[in-house]
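Researcher: I'd like a candidate sequence for this fold, 360 residues long. If you have to choose between options at a position, lean toward the conservative one.
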């Protein structure tokens, strides 16, 4: 239950930050318009940084739904390049906008698609060469906290862009088993199984494992336990060969009266970007076997914060005040958060324009 104390704490946090005049738009730099970029319905356009000044975005053929063309945009030179060969591969694999991940060096693209009617992982150079694919694993018996769905595996790059790590969750009450496999980009047909990790007494769905190096991993559980009125982040760290991760809980982060709407780990795996607004929590209405429904929270403003993975100092990046006071504005006009590859800036989309703001 959200207590009056927690709600007052959330309001005090937001008001104090506003008093410092940390208007996000005034401190950010406008990089580009996103007109014509494609994204998910009701959300901002999808884009992915390739390096400090180039990004990847999509355009959908208005005559053929789901027919995507990939473009490379230089936000400094304001020049875009159509990636024709890569777009053809992307289209032929029947892929969508989800599960798309450029390599850290910006030379490769990883995405999910279909081959012979089966889910597959694909990789290719941005010029469309050196394409490879392999069967995507299916997760058995894992129930989401909101929907009982059959999930599929996740794949992430190692920081050196030399390997891809595929991970899946299996739920064996009261434990969660995290299994992973690693394959080299230079020889993707072969894979090496890593030692599974067992996580005990897990109350909330974790985020997919992040790859710190070829044998070190990190997993975040950005949630609260419903009892402590302060949101905390559980951080799991392990090295290949271990069977149980080291568990650490960050310092208190934000009052429960605030709503944590986004959480992104930095490319260096050392900081977390948070989007926090002042809407009430528990806006998911559960009614028996019916589909969950979202209850409007009517936030008035949103803040971007950065914290260390290990807790401690919090940095307020800035505040956005919603013009309409409606929750739908949060998704339609403010979003698209992303770290730049160097970890020194973050980007976001506001009313159709892409912005960047420096962070410490």
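Model: Candidate sequence:
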């Amino acid at each position: 239950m959200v207590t009056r104390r927690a709600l007052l704490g959330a309001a005090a946090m937001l008001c104090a930050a506003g008093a410092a005049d940390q208007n996000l738009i005034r401190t950010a730099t406008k990089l580009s318009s996103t007109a014509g970029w494609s994204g998910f319905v009701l959300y901002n356009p999808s884009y992915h940084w390739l390096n400090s000044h180039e990004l990847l975005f999509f355009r959908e053929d208005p005559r053929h739904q789901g027919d995507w063309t990939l473009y490379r945009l230089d936000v400094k030179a304001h020049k875009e390049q159509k990636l024709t060969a890569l777009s053809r591969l992307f289209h032929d694999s029947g892929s969508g906008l989800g599960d798309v991940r450029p390599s850290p060096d910006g030379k490769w693209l990883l995405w999910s698609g279909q081959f012979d009617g089966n889910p597959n992982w694909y990789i290719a150079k941005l010029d469309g060469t050196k394409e490879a694919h392999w069967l995507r694993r299916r997760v058995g018996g894992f129930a989401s906290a909101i929907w009982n769905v059959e999930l599929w595996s996740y794949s992430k790059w190692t920081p050196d862009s030399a390997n891809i790590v595929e991970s899946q969750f299996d739920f064996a009450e009261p434990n969660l088993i995290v299994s992973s496999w690693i394959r080299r980009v230079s020889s993707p047909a072969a894979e090496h199984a890593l030692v599974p990790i067992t996580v005990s007494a897990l109350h909330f769905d974790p985020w997919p494992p992040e790859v710190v190096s070829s044998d070190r991993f990190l997993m975040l559980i950005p949630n609260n336990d419903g009892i402590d009125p302060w949101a905390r982040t559980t951080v799991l760290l392990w090295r290949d060969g271990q069977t149980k991760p080291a568990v650490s809980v960050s310092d208190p982060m934000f009052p429960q009266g605030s709503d944590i709407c986004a959480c992104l780990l930095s490319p260096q795996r050392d900081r977390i970007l948070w989007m926090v607004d002042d809407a009430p929590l528990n806006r998911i209405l559960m009614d028996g076997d019916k589909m969950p429904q979202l209850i409007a929270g009517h936030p008035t403003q949103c803040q971007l914060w950065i914290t260390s993975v290990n807790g401690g100092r919090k940095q307020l990046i800035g505040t956005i005040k919603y013009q309409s006071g409606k929750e739908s504005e949060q998704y339609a006009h403010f979003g698209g958060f992303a770290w730049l590859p160097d970890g020194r800036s973050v980007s976001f989309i506001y009313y159709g324009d892409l912005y960047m703001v420096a962070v410490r």
